[in-house]
Target: Elongation factor P
Amino acid sequence: MAKASEIKVGNILRFNGELVTVTEVLHRTPGKGGAFYLDKFRNIKTGKIVEARLATDEQVEICRVETNDFQYLYEDGDTMVIMDNTSFEQHNIPKALFGPAVKFLKEGMSVIVSFESEEPIMAVAPNFVELEITYAEPAVKGDTSSGALKSATTENGIEIKVPLFVNQGDRIKVDTRTGEYVERAK
Model:
């Protein structure tokens, strides 16, 4: 347990029975009454923002979270199987922790997973992945206005909009946070 005055941005707390990450800490000293903290927390599971007013000596529980690099092995129903790179121990992680970036994961990729007492609480895919184009619509002659895009399908079955010059067999870089084409891979 720690006092509210010891909370820092980035800490992970157990607040009202939920795991939250601290996004903002404001110290207020009104002319009348005692000083207090106005904190903003983001719920780790739901992403919902919660505001709290805490007295300076109020007790809060700061959680011990271990964050490590893991290797993504394969998909198993609603879970993703990952392996610790040092101990070779395998863990099943719910797909939902990766969010929309889960569809870009390829076997053998490096991912970051955070555990709080053996329970996975956060999972992050790499920001960029390289994928091969397995199908690309042919470019229409004369359709060369700036920023023209066409549909293409990647090796893992995701349909993505790419520039007209990208063809079948090309490798492209995709932003996993937005799902958008970034550039051709070198």
Summary: The CA atoms of residues 54 and 106 lie 44 Å apart. The two ends are 50 Å apart (CA to CA).
